[in-house]
Each structure stands twice: as structure tokens, then as C-alpha cells.
Write a structure and sequence with these properties.
Layout (H helix, E strand, L loop, with lengths): L1 H15 L35 H4 L1 H11 L14 H11 L3 H69 L8 H38 L1
């Protein structure tokens, strides 16, 4: 099937004045890859050129702990030096004087925290009467506001019923619009009364100053 295709390509190339393409060649590999004959069943022993993390004491301890004496690591070489051992012994086995000093420091810290806690409690207890009085005052003011709001709503409902009759639904949009209008009128009245009271007060002061 490839021969007719190549002939067709040659014919087209000749008609176009071009040289036909060279046939493709396949090359067979001249080698045969084989598995490497490595024994990976044991463990790796670092040499002089290995990095430090493979030759250091930590790596030797890890290797000895896993493989034991067959790792080639001497157990005596893993023992800490005298200075390091003395430092660890000072941390793990402190002297009696050091233990008593540590206990005294912990006791002083505990007493300091307890004094601060008692001081905070005393400060809060000193504020307690005022806090209770403020809470009671706010509660009284809230009850007064609730009663005033309830009386105002009842008065607005009574005025609305007088205008539109008792058949009006307080939930209707018409009633809500009417309530808004009454609230605006009430607000205007309060402003007017406040302004008149202010004018009367200022007039009384002027009269008192001229007399």
C-alpha cells in the first residue's frame, strides 16, 4: 500500500517541479539494554568522599541502631564526650540546691499570679455596686420606653380608627401610611412646642434683666 502512495507523491512533485521526498528509513538499535548486576539487599557504607550527613555521628548511631555490629560502627565511638555527658547530667540530674531554687522560683511565680488575680477580683467587686445600679437604671428606662411606645401606638391606632372607622386592619398598608403621617405631624408638634418653650425662656430672661 505504501508503493502507490509514494508513486502518487512523486507524480505530484514532478507536476509541481519539485524533487520527490526520500523514502523513510527505520534503524534497528545495535545494543541490548541489560539489568545492572547490583546487590541492593544490604546497606550502604559511606566512604571518605561521602557527604557529612552520611558519615556523621548521627548517621552512625542510626546505622548502628538498625544493623548492629554488622554495620561496621563501633559502639564505643558513639558514646558522648565527657563535656557533653557532663552537660546532659547537669540537665537531667540537677543538684539539690538547684532543685530547691527551681521550686522556689515556681512558688514565687505562682504567688505573683495569685496576687494579680486577687487584685483583679477586688477591682471588679469595687465596681459591682455601680454596675448593678447602671443595670437597674437601664432596665427601668427600657420599661419606660416600652410603655411610652405602647401608649403612642394605641393613641395612633385610636386616631386612625376615628378617621377611617373601626374596620381598618392595623396590618394594612393604608394604616401604615396613615401612621407615618401621624408620626410626622407629632414630630412637628414636638419641635414647635420645644421652640415656643425656648422662646418663652429667653423672653423671661430678658424681662428679668431689664427689671
Amino acid at each position: 500500500m505504501a508503493a502507490p502512495i509514494l508513486r502518487g507523491l512523486s507524480l505530484r512533485a514532478a507536476m509541481a517541479g519539485l524533487r520527490p521526498p526520500e523514502p523513510l528509513l527505520t534503524v534497528r538499535a545495535s545494543y541490548n539494554a541489560r539489568r545492572l548486576g547490583l546487590d541492593l539487599s544490604g546497606f550502604y557504607l559511606p566512604h571518605a568522599g561521602s557527604p557529612e550527613w552520611q558519615r556523621g555521628v548521627r548517621a552512625q548511631r542510626k546505622r548502628y541502631g538498625r544493623w548492629g555490629s554488622v554495620s561496621g560502627v563501633s559502639a564505643a565511638s558513639l558514646w558522648p564526650e565527657a563535656a557533653l555527658l557532663a552537660q546532659h547530667q547537669a540537665e537531667w540530674e540537677p543538684s539539690l540546691q538547684q532543685m530547691l531554687s527551681n521550686l522556689r522560683a515556681k512558688e514565687l511565680e505562682r504567688e505573683k499570679k495569685e496576687r494579680e488575680r486577687q487584685k483583679l477580683i477586688a477591682a471588679n467587686m469595687a465596681k459591682m455596686p455601680k454596675m448593678v445600679e447602671d443595670w437597674r437604671r437601664e432596665k427601668r428606662e427600657l420599661k419606660i420606653q416600652q410603655r411610652e411606645e405602647k401608649a403612642r401606638r394605641e393613641r395612633l391606632l385610636s386616631e386612625a380608627r376615628e378617621r377611617f372607622g373601626y374596620s381598618i386592619d392595623p396590618r394594612s398598608s393604608k394604616f401604615q401610611e396613615m401612621v407615618k403621617e401621624l408620626e410626622k405631624e407629632e414630630k412637628k408638634k414636638r419641635k414647635l412646642m420645644k421652640r415656643r418653650k425656648k422662646e418663652e425662656t429667653s423672653g423671661s430672661e430678658v424681662a428679668a434683666g431689664t427689671s
